[in-house]
């Protein structure tokens, strides 16, 4: 596969705006959500393990109320950890854990009152899960719910703790410290989640805009490429057929004109088919010179094609140079009446090829050619540039020389 074919294949695989919305719209967002899920899983594992050990150590046997509450909160906790690990169902599992923790928090004063007298500095296991519920809210719920829990959740725990301690003065200081710690940490976690999601959203939006603009540019390039191709076809085939018909003063010339017209009509009918630009298979310069001899004969101009050197060029290059040379010959016949027309094909072995088409007409100023005249711009200059070649046009009142060159890089 050539470099041009590779670039064209890659260009055609650029997604459309609809595909962008389906596949790339949340490219960074999905990855940020996965990272958040992993971080939440690690944090929930660390804090939840402390809470579970605390709950099991302090549980009196048999204590069915405590056992039921422990199961009520830690079973969803384990499910949430599993979902964070596999990356599936994280939001649902986190939401269930969040709700069950609130239920346990509400029931705590009633269950804890059945146990022994509590000590102010002895934190209950529900304390370790306040911020676990906070990160679960970050995963499962919108920003408003996250902020609400970060502000209210610590105070709810503080109220539950004070109720459990009977609002005794020694509980106030310890509880205030716990509440302030969980409040600050919860707000920091919410802020981090919001920041990373905002950055990911901005990246996705920028990515979407870039791909959309790139797709629009690809569409515009395709339209321009088609316009240039059709214009080049008109100049290469249709105009040559018209010139041949105008100069047909013998039966043989009329037959040639009819054949050229039939070929032009066939190429016009197949203009929407994929462009056959040739392959990288080598083509000998003798074939290129012979093709130009046929072109000159079809135009009815008694000019021989001179050939020097030897060598070969890729088929795609040979086609482009032959078509560009045909256009130059057609221009010389049309605008200079074929005066002093000379065609030289010079091979440089395996390194390149040069084709020169010259005439002794009145010449012209290439810079004054209108933008809508694509005989030179599209059929010669653009065609050579498309295969990595060069085309130069030197023209004055003594005549015009069109030089087409391609070298192996």
UniProtKB/TrEMBL annotation:
Q: Which Gene3D superfamilies match?
A: Histidine kinase-like ATPase, C-terminal domain
According to the record, the segments passing through the membrane are 35-57, 69-87, 92-111, 126-159, 171-196
Q: Which UniProt keywords apply?
A: Membrane, Transmembrane, Transmembrane helix
In terms of superkingdom, the source organism counts as: Bacteria
State the name under which the record lists this protein. Answer: Signal transduction histidine kinase
């Amino acid at each position: 596969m050539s470099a041009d074919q590779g670039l064209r294949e890659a260009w055609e695989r650029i997604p459309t705006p609809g595909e962008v919305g389906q596949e790339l719209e949340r490219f960074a967002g999905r990855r940020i959500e996965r990272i958040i899920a992993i971080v939440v899983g690690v944090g929930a594992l660390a804090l939840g393990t402390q809470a579970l050990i605390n709950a099991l150590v302090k549980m009196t046997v048999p204590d069915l109320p405590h056992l039921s509450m422990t199961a009520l909160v830690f079973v969803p906790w384990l499910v949430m950890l599993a979902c964070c690990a596999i990356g599936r169902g994280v939001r649902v599992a986190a939401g269930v854990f969040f709700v069950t923790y609130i239920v346990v928090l509400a029931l705590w004063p009633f269950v804890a009152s059945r146990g022994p007298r509590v000590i102010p500095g002895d934190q209950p296991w529900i304390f370790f899960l306040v911020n676990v519920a906070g990160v679960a809210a970050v995963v499962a719920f919108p920003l408003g719910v996250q902020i609400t829990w970060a502000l209210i959740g610590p105070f709810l725990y503080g109220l539950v703790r004070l109720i459990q301690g009977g609002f005794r003065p020694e509980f106030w200081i310890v509880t205030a410290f716990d509440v302030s710690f969980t409040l600050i940490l919860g707000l920091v976690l919410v802020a981090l989640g919001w920041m990373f999601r905002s950055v990911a959203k901005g990246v996705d939006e920028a990515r979407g805009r870039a791909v959309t603009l790139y797709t629009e540019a690809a569409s515009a390039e395709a339209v321009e490429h088609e316009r240039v191709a059709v214009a080049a076809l008109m100049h290469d085939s249709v105009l040559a057929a018209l010139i041949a018909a105008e100069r047909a003063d013998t039966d043989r010339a009329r037959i040639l004109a009819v054949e050229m017209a039939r070929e032009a009509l066939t190429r016009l009918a197949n203009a929407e088919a994929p462009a056959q630009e040739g392959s990288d298979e080598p083509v000998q310069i003798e074939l290129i010179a012979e093709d130009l001899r046929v072109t000159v004969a079809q135009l009815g101009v008694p000019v021989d094609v001179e050939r020097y050197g030897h060598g070969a060029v890729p088929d795609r290059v040979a086609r482009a140079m032959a078509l560009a040379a045909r256009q130059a010959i057609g221009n010389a016949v049309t605008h200079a009446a074929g005066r002093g027309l000379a065609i030289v094909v010079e091979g440089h072995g395996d390194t390149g090829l040069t084709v020169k088409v010259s005439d002794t007409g009145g010449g012209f100023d290439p810079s004054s050619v209108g933008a809508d005249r694509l005989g030179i711009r599209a059929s010669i200059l653009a065609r050579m540039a498309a295969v990595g070649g060069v085309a130069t046009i030197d023209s004055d009142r003594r005549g015009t020389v069109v030089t087409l060159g391609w070298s192996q890089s």
